TrEMBL record:
<feature type="domain" description="YknX-like C-terminal permuted SH3-like">
    <location>
        <begin position="336"/>
        <end position="403"/>
    </location>
</feature>
<dbReference type="Pfam" id="PF25989">
    <property type="entry name" value="YknX_C"/>
</dbReference>
<feature type="signal peptide">
    <location>
        <begin position="1"/>
        <end position="21"/>
    </location>
</feature>
<dbReference type="InterPro" id="IPR006143">
    <property type="entry name" value="RND_pump_MFP"/>
</dbReference>
<comment type="similarity">
    <text>Belongs to the membrane fusion protein (MFP) (TC 8.A.1) family.</text>
</comment>
<dbReference type="GO" id="GO:0015562">
    <property type="term" value="F:efflux transmembrane transporter activity"/>
</dbReference>
<dbReference type="InterPro" id="IPR058637">
    <property type="entry name" value="YknX-like_C"/>
</dbReference>
<feature type="coiled-coil region">
    <location>
        <begin position="127"/>
        <end position="185"/>
    </location>
</feature>
<dbReference type="InterPro" id="IPR059052">
    <property type="entry name" value="HH_YbhG-like"/>
</dbReference>
<feature type="domain" description="YbhG-like alpha-helical hairpin">
    <location>
        <begin position="92"/>
        <end position="209"/>
    </location>
</feature>
<keyword id="KW-0732">Signal</keyword>
<dbReference type="GO" id="GO:1990281">
    <property type="term" value="C:efflux pump complex"/>
</dbReference>
<protein>
    <submittedName>
        <fullName>Uncharacterized protein</fullName>
    </submittedName>
</protein>
<keyword id="KW-0175">Coiled coil</keyword>
<dbReference type="Pfam" id="PF25881">
    <property type="entry name" value="HH_YBHG"/>
</dbReference>
């Protein structure tokens, strides 16, 4: 049975081969006319529609934090509140800083009194008292000298002892020293303090004043104020918590106008200009924005150049963080452009199309230039007026009979 089945398959294959051979001359004799779509090659202006997207941001934004450390006692604003520059947003416990101000004020008073004293000098009563001391010392010195002269005469006559003589002499020396000290004290109160003492007192006073101002400035920093006009975007702290210097408490942004930075390919940046209008779209809603800035350098990672676009947002119905889309039409150079599906490429720069000539498909090598959306620039191989096969090329061979489906080519 197996041998009979194999013999049957062999005979069937032979009959099929004979049948195909008998039909080949008929196929060669009558070629099928293939239906294709034709288009007339024309000179065109290249148009490229670029779609870009970016994230909306506040026009201006600030993270607000305390410049001093402490415990938060009050947070006056919440998300969504509108604030003006200088408005108080939060407060810290300022007890310790108030004591520093009081201490600095006392130091200013003390150093100020000292400066006033050395500047004005002694009072009349102090000067008069010093003069009286000098007069008293002068009398005492004169009396001591008179006594010494009498004792000296007695000593020469050997009427008194040497010890008494020396005692009288010491009394004169002590009286002279007292007189000199009194005279110096009178000189100090009449001439006033020395220049260096006045300078030192003045410097101490100024240093105390600066210390007071510094303490007052530190106390003022326990009140957190808004640095810009805007809206509270985020509240980042809570009452009762301890915060350090620079710890963010609020995030404020100007959202009456939003901005978006679009990543424009560097090869297309020539088509963008500052001041031009651009349409932004968010979930089907469109608004006109304005190009306000073109960044001066390209992003090394993406090869794009940032273009900043601003858009009005008076109702605050667009939100920072949302992604918008921008569409821009860029005019390119004029040339011959054909649909991508009309070109067959074999790699290594080899490409061809089919051109209709006398009812037949003529295989025509072409050179491809720029790619513009779904159309290719043909730099050589075609000319204006050629009837190009734009659909059905995948079923064609050179010389196949063709006709335009649906009438004349477009």
């Amino acid at each position: 049975m197996r041998k009979q089945w194999l013999s049957f398959l062999a005979i069937a294959g032979l009959l099929a081969t004979t049948a195909c051979s008998s039909q080949e001359p008929a196929a060669e004799a009558v070629s099928e006319v293939k239906q294709v779509e034709l288009a007339v090659v024309k000179q065109e202006q290249a148009v490229k529609v670029t779609e870009l997207s970016g994230t909306l941001q506040p026009l201006e934004e600030a993270l607000v934090s305390f410049e001093v450390a402490g415990r938060i006692t009050e947070l006056a604003k919440n998300e969504g509140d509108t604030v003006k520059r200088g408005d108080i947003l939060a407060r810290l416990d300022g007890s310790d800083y108030s004591l520093q101000v009081a201490s600095a004020s006392a130091t200013v008073q003390q150093t100020g009194a000292t400066l006033e004293k050395v500047t004005k000098g002694a009072r009349e009563q102090e000067i008069e008292q010093a003069r009286l001391v000098v007069e008293k010392a002068t009398i005492a010195h004169q009396q001591a000298e008179d006594d010494f002269k009498r004792i000296e005469a007695l000593y020469r006559e050997k009427a008194i002892s040497q010890s008494e003589y020396e005692t009288a002499q010491n009394r004169v020396n002590v009286a002279l020293t007292d007189l000199q000290n009194a005279q110096q004290a009178l000189s100090l109160v009449t001439q006033g303090a020395r220049a260096e003492d006045k300078t030192l007192s003045q410097a101490s006073y100024h240093q105390a004043v600066i210390g007071k101002e510094l303490a007052a400035s530190t106390l003022a920093k326990t009140q957190l104020r808004a640095p810009i006009d805007g809206t509270i975007i985020a509240k980042l702290g809570s009452a009762g918590s301890l915060v350090g210097v620079g710890s963010p408490v609020y995030r404020i942004g100007q959202i009456d106008t939003l901005k978006v930075v679009l990543p424009v390919p560097d090869r297309e940046i020539f088509a963008w200009t500052e001041g031009e209008a651009i349409t932004l779209e968010l979930y089907g809603q469109k608004r006109e924005g304005k190009v306000v800035k073109i960044h001066p350098a390209a992003n090394q990672s993406t090869g794009t150049i940032g273009v900043e676009v601003q858009v009005k947002n008076e109702k605050h119905d667009w939100f920072a963080g949302q992604v918008v889309k921008a569409t821009k039409t860029v005019q390119g150079k004029a040339g011959l452009y054909v649909p991508v599906e009309a070109v067959i490429s074999r790699g290594q720069g080899e490409a061809h199309v089919f051109v209709e000539s006398a009812g037949k498909a003529v295989k025509t090598p072409v050179t491809i230039g720029e790619i513009n959306s779904n159309r290719l620039e043909i730099t050589s191989g075609l000319k204006e007026g050629d009837r190009l096969v734009v659909k059905g090329v995948d079923q064609l061979f050179d010389g196949d009979p063709i006709e335009a489906a649906g009438g004349q080519p477009q």
